[in-house]
Write a structure and sequence with these properties.
The complex is a heterodimer of chains A (about 750) and B (about 500).
Chain A: H1 18-22, E1 33-36, E2 40-43, E3 50-55, E4 64-70, E5 73-79, H2 92-95, E6 111-114, E7 117-120, H3 123-141, E8 146-150, H4 156-170, E9 175-177, H5 184-194, H6 203-208, E10 211-215, H7 219-222, H8 227-231, E11 238-242, H9 248-252, E12 255-257, H10 264-277, H11 283-289, E13 290-291, H12 293-300, H13 305-312, H14 316-327, E14 332-336, H15 338-341, H16 346-360, E15 369-372, H17 379-385, H18 400-410, H19 425-433, E16 439-443, H20 447-450, H21 454-462, E17 466-471, E18 484-487, E19 496-499, E20 504-508, H22 521-531, H23 535-538, H24 545-556, H25 568-574, E21 576-578, E22 606-607, E23 626-631, H26 647-652, E24 657-660, H27 662-668, E25 675-679, E26 684-692, E27 700-704, E28 732-738
Parallel strand pairs in A: 8-9, 8-16, 10-11, 10-14, 11-12, 13-22, 14-15, 16-17, 17-18, 23-27, 24-26
Antiparallel strand pairs in A: 1-2, 3-4, 4-5, 6-7, 6-18, 19-20, 20-21, 23-28, 24-27, 25-26, 25-28
Chain B: H1 9-13, E1 39-46, H2 55-64, E2 74-80, E3 87-93, H3 102-106, E4 112-114, E5 121-123, H4 133-137, E6 144-146, E7 151-153, H5 159-162, H6 169-173, E8 179-185, H7 186-191, E9 212-214, E10 224-225, H8 238-263, H9 265-268, H10 272-292, H11 313-336, H12 342-364, H13 375-396, H14 400-425, H15 430-440, H16 444-464, H17 469-491
Parallel strand pairs in B: 1-9
Antiparallel strand pairs in B: 1-8, 2-3, 2-10, 4-5, 6-7
The chains are: A alpha/beta (about 750), B mainly alpha (about 500).
C-alpha cells in the first residue's frame, strides 16, 4: 500500500530530528509561498522554471495541458488555457498528472529473466535476445506463433511505426490492441453503417444540440471535462441519459431512462419503430443517402412500444416522449461509451444508434451526430495509423485496391500485405491457451488486471515460451510474468501526437528526460528493427518521430482520415487541429464528417442495419442472483498503474467498493462498509467494501474495475461480440457473501 | 465553414495565472468591486452545478503544497430517494470564514485573525504552537494539524491571489463553475444566514458560517450523509490523557492535605506523612504539566499559550494550573518547614486547583464536540480529583475518613459515567448516538473494564477501609482506570463535521 500519509516525500522532511521535536519550524521552506509571473501567488515549491505545452495522456477527451518543469523534474500541471478542447480546465487526474512520471514503480532498466529471476541487462542484450527469441519461435512454429498486444497509450507516430514493424518486419498479423477491450464495437459499427471508422461529430455538437441522448455514458466520472459541453446552453437543451445505474451523469439529465441492463438495443429499435410509425423520419435524407430502409421498416415491426417497454422496463409514456424528443429535435446528438461497447451486441447497438441518426438525418450538421466517446488518449491514433484491425488510413485488408495503393506508397510487393486481419485480442489469448501463439509482445497495457476472466488469461500466458512486456512501469501484475521487461519512456518524456475522440490531433511534447535507461517506444521499435536488419527498409532515413509523422501524412492522404494538411509547425501554432485536413487547406474551428451525405461505401450510401436484440449471455439466477455491472471512478485511470502513484488520488479513492441496493442487503443481512466477496462461476473477488446505495437497482450490483487488489475481472465473463470481439464486461451473474475471516486473498 | 482563429490570439498573449488557469470570464466567479464597510468576502457553492469531480481538492493541495492527507478543501457526498429516483449531491467546502469563528475564539496564541479588510479568517503558522485546540473547536473540521510540521493550517480563500485579482485555486479549477467568491453584508447575514445550511453540514448556528450554498430545488427530503455508518475513534492525545489525570490527582491531593493540616495532628497522628505527601503531589503536578507540552507541535513556544487569556480556555488553563503549581510549591514549602500561616497558602492552592480543573474541563466543552459539550465533563474531571487525591494521600497518611472521601469520588465518577452513557444513548443527535455506539460497540471491553475498576478500586476497597498494600493496589488500579477513562473520553467523542465521501480515507490528521 502506498503511503499517502503526511510525509510529503521531500528530502528536507527526513524523519524526526531534535529541532523539529523542540518545535522549530524546520519545514518553513517546504511550506513557503511565493509569487511568480506565470503562476501568481502559490506554494513556492510548485513554481517551475518553465512550462511545456502538451496533451493529457489519460483519456480521449484530449485536453491541452502544460507541464511545469524545474531542474528536469515535472513539478506541476495546469490546463493549457488556449487549447480548444478543455477551455482552461482539467479533471483531477490531469491536475495531478506530473506525479506519474518520477515514481518508485517506473521501469528504469531492461530486465531479463535468468534462472527464474528478472535481472538487469543492457539494452543491447535485451534487444538481441528479443530478436533472436522471436525469430527462433517463428522459425519453429511459423510466423503466426508470434502475437503482439498493443495499446491506445502511445503516440500516433509510434503506432504507425509499430504497425510496419509487426506486419512487415516480424511478419505476423496476430496483432491487436487493448482498444479491443474499449471501443472496438464503435469501430465495427461505424464500418458497417458508414463504410468506415471515424466519429462523425465533434464535442461542439453536444453543446449545440437541442436534444442530447447519452447511452451507457457516465461522462461525469469518465470524461468530466466534456460536462462543460453538456451543461452549456442547458436551458435550450433536453438531456436524456439511458443507464441502468443512476450514475452522476444520469442525475444531471432532464430524463433518466433507468432501463434494464443491456436492453439498450431494444430501446433503440423501439425508438426507431415509433419514429417510423409517427413519420418523424427524414424521408428525403433516407431516400438520398441510405439503403436498406424497406428491410429495416419490416424488421422493426415487432419492436412495438409494448414489446420494448416490456424488455427495457421503460414506461410507454417515457418511451414515446424520448422518441418524440429525438424525432422532433432540430439537432439531435447521440453519445455513447462503454455501456454500449462492452457488450456481445456492441456492434449491433452502435448500428442501431447510427440507424436513428440516419433515419432522422441527424448527422453531418452542427449539433447532429451519432458520436462515440472513446477511452484512451490515443485510441484514435491506433485506429487510424496502426495496422491491427485495419491497414493504415482506414484501409481494408480485404480490399485489393486498398492493398495495392498502400503497397505502392511503401514501394513493396502487394503480397507482403495480409489479405485479412489476424487474430483479435481475445483470440490471441485463446491461441496462447491452445499453444498456437508461443511468443507474445505486450506493449503498454496490463491485461493481468484488465482482461475478463483472469483464469483463462493466466492459463494462456503460462503456456508461452517467451513473453516480452514493454511498459513505463515495473512491477505491474503483467510485467511480473514477463521474460523480458523493456522500460519505456512515458507521457512527459517523449514527443508525438494524440488524436482525440473528435478527430482532433494535438501535439505531445517532451518535458523531462526519461527516468533511468527508459527509451521512447519509438526508439525501441527502431532499435528492434535494426536488430532484425530491417531498419532502413522499413524506416528509410528516419531519425525522429516527425519523420514517422510525415510518412503517415503521405499514407493518409486522400483517405477519410486525411492528415496530409497537418504538420508539427501547424500544431505548435494552432494548438490542435481536426482531421480530415488535406494538404494546403486551412484548418477550421470544427469539422464534421458526412456533411455532404456521402459515405465511405461503394455506392456512397450509409447502410440501415437490422439489429436484433437478445438478452445478455449470463442471466442471473440460482446460485448467482445478481447482475454485476462494472465501471470507473473519476479519480482513477484504467488499471491504476499510474494513478495509484498519485497520493492525492489515492487519498480520494483508496479502494474498490461494491454498490448494492439496501433492499437486497437487508435480505442478505449485509450492511455498509462490511467486507464481502463477489463470486461468479469463474472466480472470486475477496474482501470488497460494501456500499449500500439506491444508485444501483435491486438485483444489480456495481463495482469499479481499477483495482488490482480486488480485481473485478476475476469474475467477469469472457464472452465477446462476434464482430468487434469486444468483451461483455457490463453484465455477468454473481453472488455476494460475507468475507470469511479465515479466508486468504485468492489473487 | 469559417476559417479559424483556432486560438484567440488574446488568449495566447494572456499571461497564464496560477497552477490552474482562469476561465475566459473570471469576473463572474470573483467579485468585480471592492469591499465596502460592513462587508466581507465569502464562498458561494452551487450544489446544482457540482459533479463531484474533486478538481477543487486537487487544485487546493497543489496551490498550498500540502501533502495528500491534508485537504483544506474537501468534497462530501449526500444521498436521498429510492431507485430510480435517487439523488446524490456533493458538498465542496473549504473554510467558511465564519462571522464568529470558533477556531479563533479558542486559539490560545492568537494565531488566528479575522482580516479587517476581507473578513477572511487567517491563521499564522509562525504564531501557532500546534496545540490543535482549533481543530476541536471548528464544527466543520476545517483546521487540520500537519504533524510533520507541527502546526495547524487551513484555507485562507487564497486571499493573496484574490488581492491580485486572480481566482482562488478551487474557484479556478472547477470545470462547472460551482464555486465562486462573493461579497456579503455581515449585518444582513447575521439576521438571516439560513442559506449557510445544507444537508450534510453542521448547523451554521455554531459560528455563523458565511458560505452560501445553493441547493437543488427538487431535493428529496431524506437527503443526508452517506458516511454515518463509518464512525472511527478519534485521536487519543496521550500527553493530555496523562496530564489531565495527574493534575486532577494533584489538585485533589492538595485539597486533602490542606484539610488534614487544618484539622491538625490530633486528627491524624504523624505530620511527617503530610510533608512527603505534599512533595509527592507536587512532583506529580510538575511532571504532568511538563509532559503536557509534549502534546504541542512546537513545545519550546509553549509560553505563547498565555496570549489568549481574553478568549481561550486553554490559555486560562495554562494560567490557573501554573498558579496552582506555584501556590502548591509555597504550601508544600511551608508545610516542610512547619511555617505558620500556611492555611492561607493551602486555600490559594485549592482555589487555583479548582480553577485549573474547571478550565481544563471548559476546554473540551465546545459545540463542535457534542459529547464533550456537557456538565458531565466537569463532573468527570472533578470526580477524578476526588477519587485519586484522597487515595494517593491515604497511601502515606492512612485514615478512614480520607478513604471514605475517595469512595465518594469513585461513586461520583461511576454515577457520572453511567448517566452520561444513558444520555448519549437516548438522543437523536447523530454525534452523541455515535459516541454511545462506539462505547457499546468496538470500545465495549475497555468501557466495561473502566467501570469495573471504578467499582472495585474506587468504591469497594476504600469503603472496606483496608490498609497497606491493598490500598496501594487500589490506587494503582484506580489511577489506571482514570487513565483508561480519559483515553476513552478522547477516542469516543464523535466530532461534528461536514459529510464525508463514502470511500474517503481515514479522518484528516487532527
Amino acid at each position: 500500500m502506498k503511503n499517502v500519509g503526511l510525509k510529503s516525500g521531500s528530502p528536507k522532511s527526513g524523519g524526526l530530528n531534535l529541532l523539529r521535536v523542540l518545535g522549530l519550524d524546520t519545514l518553513k521552506e517546504e511550506y513557503a509561498f511565493a509569487r511568480s509571473e506565470s503562476t501568481g501567488y502559490t506554494s513556492a515549491k510548485k513554481i517551475p522554471d518553465h512550462w511545456v505545452p502538451t496533451t493529457c495522456g489519460y483519456c480521449s477527451v484530449g485536453c491541452g495541458i502544460e507541464i511545469g518543469v524545474k531542474d528536469d523534474k515535472a513539478i506541476a500541471s495546469r490546463p493549457h488555457a488556449a487549447h480548444p478542447v478543455n477551455r482552461g480546465k482539467l479533471c483531477p487526474k490531469g491536475l495531478s498528472e506530473h506525479y506519474i512520471i518520477d515514481t518508485d514503480n517506473r521501469a528504469k532498466y531492461p530486465l531479463l529473466r535468468k534462472d527464474g529471476k528478472l535481472v538487469r541487462v543492457s539494452w543491447d542484450e535485451a534487444l538481441t535476445v528479443m530478436a533472436e527469441r522471436f525469430r527462433a519461435t517463428q522459425a519453429k512454429y511459423g510466423p503466426e506463433a508470434l502475437g503482439v498486444l498493443s495499446t491506445g497509450q502511445l503516440v500516433t507516430e509510434e503506432f504507425y511505426t509499430l504497425g510496419k514493424l509487426v506486419q512487415l518486419g516480424l511478419g505476423t498479423n496476430n496483432y491487436d490492441g487493448n482498444t479491443t477491450l474499449c471501443m472496438a464495437s464503435a469501430v465495427s459499427g461505424y464500418k458497417i453503417s458508414f463504410g468506415s471508422d471515424g466519429p462523425p461529430g465533434a464535442y461542439e455538437d453536444m453543446e449545440r444540440a437541442d436534444v442530447v441522448l447519452l447511452i451507457g455514458a457516465n461522462l461525469a466520472d469518465n470524461h468530466p471535462i466534456l460536462c462543460q459541453y453538456l451543461e452549456a446552453n442547458r436551458q435550450q437543451k433536453t438531456v436524456i441519459v439511458a443507464d441502468p445505474r443512476v450514475s452522476k451523469t444520469a442525475m444531471m439529465a432532464d430524463i433518466h431512462l433507468p432501463l434494464k441492463p443491456r436492453s439498450d438495443l431494444a430501446l433503440l429499435n423501439g425508438i426507431a419503430h415509433i419514429l417510423i410509425s409517427y413519420n418523424l423520419i427524414d424521408r428525403e435524407y433516407v431516400a438520398a443517402h441510405t439503403r436498406g430502409f424497406a428491410e429495416l421498416e419490416t424488421f422493426l415491426e415487432k419492436y412495438t412500444p409494448e414489446y420494448v417497454s416490456n424488455i427495457t422496463g421503460i414506461s410507454l409514456d417515457v418511451l414515446h416522449k424520448t422518441a418524440f424528443l429525438y424525432g422532433r429535435a432540430k439537432a439531435g446528438f447521440i453519445g455513447w461509451t462503454m455501456g454500449v461497447n462492452h457488450s456481445t451486441l456492441g456492434t449491433a447497438t452502435v448500428n442501431a444508434i447510427c440507424n436513428l441518426a440516419l433515419l432522422t438525418g441527424q448527422i453531418g450538421r452542427t449539433g447532429a451526430s451519432p458520436f462515440s466517446i472513446t477511452g484512451q488518449c490515443n485510441a484514435m491514433g491506433t485506429r487510424e495509423a496502426g495496422f491491427a484491425s485495419s491497414m493504415p488510413g482506414y484501409r481494408k485488408f480485404d480490399n485489393s485496391e486498398d492493398r495495392a495503393e498502400l503497397a505502392s506508397i511503401w514501394g513493396i510487393h502487394e503480397s507482403r500485405l495480409p489479405a485479412q486481419r489476424g487474430l483479435a485480442y481475445p483470440d490471441i489469448i485463446e491461441a496462447t491457451v491452445a499453444k498456437k501463439i508461443r511468443a507474445l509482445w505486450i506493449i503498454a497495457t496490463n491485461p493481468l488486471v484488465s482482461y475478463p476472466n483472469q483464469d483463462v488469461l493466466r492459463n494462456g500466458l503460462s503456456n508461452l515460451d517467451f513473453l516480452v512486456v514493454q511498459d513505463g512501469y515495473h512491477p505491474t501484475p503483467t510485467t511480473e510474468l514477463a521474460d523480458l521487461v523493456l522500460p519505456a519512456a512515458i507521457w512527459g518524456e517523449k514527443e508525438g501526437t494524440y488524436t482525440n475522440s473528435e478527430r482532433r490531433v494535438s501535439k505531445v511534447n517532451k518535458a523531462v528526460t526519461p527516468v533511468g535507461e527508459a527509451r521512447s517506444d519509438f526508439d525501441i521499435f527502431l532499435a528492434l528493427a535494426e536488430k532484425l536488419g530491417m531498419r532502413e527498409e522499413l524506416y528509410p532515413g528516419w531519425k525522429t518521430v516527425e519523420d514517422a509523422f510525415n510518412e503517415w501524412r503521405l499514407v493518409s492522404k486522400g483517405r477519410l482520415c486525411d492528415y496530409s494538411g497537418i504538420n508539427y509547425h501547424m500544431l505548435a501554432e494552432h494548438g490542435a487541429v481536426q482531421w480530415p485536413l488535406t494538404e494546403g487547406a486551412a484548418p477550421v474551428a470544427t469539422s464534421r464528417l458526412y456533411a455532404d451525405g456521402q459515405f465511405q461505401t461503394a455506392d456512397g450510401r450509409a447502410k440501415l442495419v437490422c439489429t436484433e436484440w437478445a438478452p445478455f449471455p449470463e442471466q442471473p439466477g440460482g446460485e448467482y442472483p445478481f447482475i454485476l455491472n462494472t465501471g470507473r471512478t473519476v479519480e482513477h485511470w484504467h488499471t491504476r498503474t499510474k494513478t495509484k502513484e498519485v497520493p492525492i488520488l489515492e487519498r480520494l479513492s483508496p479502494r474498490a467498493w461494491l454498490e448494492m441496493n439496501p433492499r437486497d442487503a437487508k435480505k442478505l443481512g449485509l450492511h455498509s462498509h462490511q467486507s464481502i466477496d463477489v463470486v461468479s462461476r469463474r472466480g472470486r473477488i475477496h474482501g470488497v467494501e460494501l456500499r449500500l446505495t439506491e444508485i444501483t437497482a435491486p438485483g444489480q450490483v456495481f463495482m469499479p474495475f481499477h483495482f488490482a487488489e480486488t480485481n473485478v475481472n476475476e469474475v467477469t465473463q469472457d464472452a465477446f461480440d462476434p464482430i468487434s470481439r469486444e468483451p461483455n464486461y457490463k453484465q455477468c451473474a454473481v453472488r455476494v457473501e460475507k468475507t470469511l475471516a479465515h479466508a486468504g486473498a485468492n489473487s | 465553414m469559417t476559417t479559424l482563429p483556432l486560438m484567440d490570439s488574446s488568449l495566447l498573449s494572456m499571461a497564464p495565472k496560477g497552477l490552474v488557469q482562469l476561465e475566459a470570464e473570471p469576473h463572474r466567479l470573483i467579485p468585480e468591486r471592492g469591499l465596502e464597510a460592513g462587508e466581507q468576502y465569502r464562498f458561494h457553492f452551487d450544489m446544482t452545478k457540482c459533479i463531484g469531480c474533486k478538481c477543487c481538492v486537487v487544485a487546493c493541495n497543489e496551490q498550498n503544497g500540502n501533502p495528500a492527507a491534508i485537504n483544506w478543501r474537501r468534497v462530501g457526498e449526500i444521498e436521498g430517494g429510492y431507485y430510480p429516483d435517487t439523488q446524490r449531491h456533493y458538498l465542496s467546502m473549504g473554510c467558511n470564514h465564519c462571522v464568529e469563528p470558533s477556531c479563533l475564539i479558542g486559539c490560545p496564541t492568537e494565531a488566528y485573525t479575522k482580516d479587517l479588510n476581507t473578513g477572511v479568517v487567517l491563521h499564522s503558522a509562525d504564531a501557532c504552537i500546534g496545540c490543535q485546540y482549533c481543530t476541536w473547536n471548528c464544527s466543520y473540521g476545517v483546521p487540520q494539524y500537519n504533524a510533520e510540521r507541527g502546526v495547524v493550517g487551513k484555507c485562507d480563500m487564497c486571499h493573496n491571489r484574490l488581492s491580485d485579482g486572480v481566482a482562488p485555486a478551487c474557484v479556478g479549477a472547477c470545470p462547472e463553475g460551482a464555486i465562486a467568491i462573493e461579497i456579503v453584508n455581515i449585518a444582513d447575514w447575521r439576521r438571516d444566514y439560513l442559506s449557510a445550511n445544507a444537508p450534510g453540514l453542521p448547523s451554521a448556528d455554531d459560528s455563523i458560517s458565511t458560505t452560501r450554498v445553493t441547493l437543488p430545488e427538487n431535493m428529496v427530503p431524506d437527503t443526508g450523509r452517506v458516511d454515518l455508518e463509518r464512525v472511527e475513534p478519534e485521536h487519543p492525545h496521550w500527553p493530555l490523557v496523562f496530564m489531565l489525570v495527574l493534575t486532577q490527582l494533584s489538585v485533589g491531593a492538595f485539597a486533602v492535605l490542606w484539610l488534614l493540616d487544618l484539622l491538625g495532628r490530633d486528627f491524624l497522628g504523624k505530620a511527617a506523612d503530610l510533608k512527603i505527601g505534599a512533595l509527592a503531589s507536587l512532583t506529580l503536578a510538575g511532571i504532568s504539566l511538563g509532559a503536557s507540552t509534549l502534546h504541542l507541535g512546537r513545545p519550546i513556544y509553549a509560553w505563547r499559550a498565555l496570549k489568549g487569556l481574553r478568549r481561550s480556555w486553554l490559555s486560562r488553563e495554562v494560567l490557573t494550573l501554573s498558579l496552582f503549581a506555584g501556590a502548591a510549591s509555597l504550601f508544600a514549602g511551608m508545610l516542610l518547614f512547619d511555617l505558620p500561616g500556611r492555611g492561607a497558602a493551602g486555600l490559594m492552592t485549592v482555589l487555583a486547583g479548582i480553577a485549573g480543573v474547571t478550565s481544563s474541563a471548559r476546554i473540551y466543552m465546545v459545540k463542535a464536540r457534542p459529547a464533550w459539550c456537557t456538565a458531565y465533563t466537569i463532573a468527570e474531571f472533578f470526580s477524578t480529583a476526588l477519587l485519586l487525591g484522597p487515595l494517593f494521600v491515604s497511601l502515606l497518611a492512612p485514615s478512614s475518613w480520607v478513604l471514605y472521601a475517595a469512595a465518594a469520588g469513585g461513586g461520583a465518577q461511576l454515577t457520572t459515567q453511567a448517566l452520561k452513557f444513558l444520555w448519549l444513548s437516548r438522543t437523536d443527535v447523530f454525534e452523541l448516538r455515535a459516541s454511545s455506539l462506539l462505547l457499546s460497540g468496538r470500545l465495549q471491553n475497555l468501557f466495561v473494564t473502566r467501570l469495573a475498576i471504578l467499582v472495585v478500586a474506587g468504591i469497594l476497597i476504600p469503603v472496606m477501609g483496608t490498609r497497606g498494600w491493598v490500598i496501594a493496589l487500589a490506587f494503582v488500579l484506580a489511577l489506571g482506570g482514570e487513565w483508561l477513562g480519559r483515553f476513552l473520553f478522547f477516542i469516543s467523542v464523535v466530532p461534528k463535521n461536514m459529510a464525508a465521501a463514502f470511500t474517503s480515507s481515514e479522518r484528516a490528521a487532527a
